[in-house]
Amino acid sequence: MILGIETSCDETAAAVLSGDGKVLSSVVSSQATLHARYGGVVPEIASRRHLELVSPVVRQALDEAGTSLAAVDRVAVTQGPGLVGALLVGLSAAKAIAWAGRLPLVPVDHLDGHVASLYLGARVCARSESASADSDRAKTPERHGPVEPPFVCLLASGGHTLLLEVSERGSSKRLGTTLDDAAGEAFDKGARLLGLGYPGGAEIDRLAAGGDPTAFDFPVARVPGLDFSFSGLKTALLYAVRDLGEDDAERRKADLAASYQRAIVLALAGRAHDALERTGLSRVAVVGGVASNSALRAALPDASFAPLAYCTDNAAMIASAARYAEPLPYPGYLDLDAYASAV
Ligand code: KG4
Ligand code: ZN
Questions:
Q1: Do 319 and 24 touch, CB atoms closer than 8 A?
Q2: What's the gap in Å between 82 CA and the centre of ligand 2?
Q3: SS3 of 23, please?
Q4: Nearest-angstrom CA–CA distance, 256 and 247
Q5: Whole-number Å distance between alpha carbons of 28 and 13
Q6: Residue 16 in 3-state DSSP?
Q7: In CATH, which superfamily holds the domain spanning 151-306?
Q8: How many Å lie between the centroid of ligand 1 and the Cα of residue 293?
């Protein structure tokens, strides 16, 4: 059994995976409400909260899986990229658990983790129950079951927007990335301009359902190659809100949200198609928090999406990635460090 731990941003998560990749438990404790009043994640607050939550969350994951540490034979943990203080909490916990049990430790890159969410089957747990309520709302049925490479992977989260060519499980090549904001970041910043809560992606998704996506003509930057750019879009929304004035902007909030969302979705879906053309591959798979977006799911009807429960940060995806990474044998991992930026 693999115990996975994830603390790269503002979710404290632990999961237990069977050796053949079945999710036995996946516990995610989100700190979103704690950070909401600041409009974004405050690193020091995140680290402190991880410290309080990591042990109970690991304990809960083991309990829900009906197992104990004695049955775990590998510990997987996110090493980076992310907030270093936050990462260090999970990394230290994972080292301690692995060391105490004389187990190997598997350091996992968070982005490889998102890709590996595609190799998980969906499972019913607390988090996926709320996610399926979302899927009912969006009327986008989930396509379950592991996705097999080769495929083009669109990874769109709060911290990253990448196009990858995935040739086999555990191996990928970068095709493009964002030159400025990540797609999730664009959603979050747009939501803030519209006076919505944090994190903003799901809020915009909800509000946009009642708006006209063609009401405002927001620009979709076309940068060379397979890269993305979202910072101009955010500025366009800022000007649109300012030009409308407070009352009209409030009245037309749903149209603004729908049009803004459409521009992000067009950029993501358009680039995913470009990547198919460039690589000659026939399938797109979408992962990361933004993969929950109902308009993106509708714009890419033939794509495979990570199960909703495993789009936003979770530890099941980290344990899944550990099945395709090299474990560090006991006890040679004690001096392992976290890293902040993508390698
Ligand atoms: O993957 P994730 O949990 O964290 C990172 O690794 O960054 O992604 C979080 C991002 C946030 O920016 C959030 O606003 C966005 O995913 N997100 C969404 C939706 N749900 C979450 N964006 C658009 N539509 C959604 N339904
Ligand atoms: Zn993530």
A1: no
A2: 9
A3: strand
A4: 13
A5: 4
A6: strand
A7: ATPase, nucleotide binding domain (3.30.420.40)
A8: 8
311 CA closest ligand 1 atom index: 1
Q: What residues does the ion ligand 2 have nearby, CB within 5 Å?
A: 157, 313
For ligand 1, is residue 190 a contact (CB within 6 Å)? Answer: no
Q: Could you list the pLDDT tens digit for every one of the 343 residues in the chain?
A: 999 999 999 899 999 999 889 999 999 998 888 878 787 788 888 899 999 999 999 999 999 999 999 999 999 999 999 999 999 999 999 999 999 999 999 999 999 999 999 999 755 443 333 333 343 434 444 556 789 999 999 999 999 999 999 999 999 999 999 999 999 999 999 999 999 988 899 999 999 999 999 999 998 878 989 999 998 999 999 999 999 999 999 999 999 999 999 999 999 999 999 999 999 999 999 999 999 999 999 999 999 999 999 999 999 999 999 999 999 999 999 999 999 997 7
Tally Cβ neighbours within 10 Å of residue 208. Answer: 24
Tokens of 206: 């909800």
| Cα 67 to averaged position of ligand 2 atoms, centre (Å) | 27
CB 141 within 8 A of CB 115: no
Structure token digits, residue 210: 């009642």
- Tell whether domain 2-144+311-322 is in CATH 3.30.559.10: no
Strand, helix or coil for residue 3: strand
Q: Is the CB of 290 under 6 A from ligand 1?
A: yes
For ligand 1, mutation pick of 189, 312, 341 (most atoms within 8 Å of CB): 312
Q: Return the H-helix or E-strand segment holding 108.
A: strand 105-109
Does ligand 1 have an atom closer than 6 angstroms to the CB of 165? no
Ligand 1 centre to CA of 288 (Å) is 7
Stretch(es) of the chain classified as CATH 3.30.420.40 = 2-144+311-322, 151-306
CA of 52 to the centre of ligand 1 (A): 24
3-state secondary structure 154-216: EEECCCCEEEEEEEECCEEEEEEEECCCCHHHHHHHHHHHCCCCCCHHHHHHHHHCCCCCCCC
Q: Closest Cα partner for 246 from 194, 190, 186, 189?
A: 194
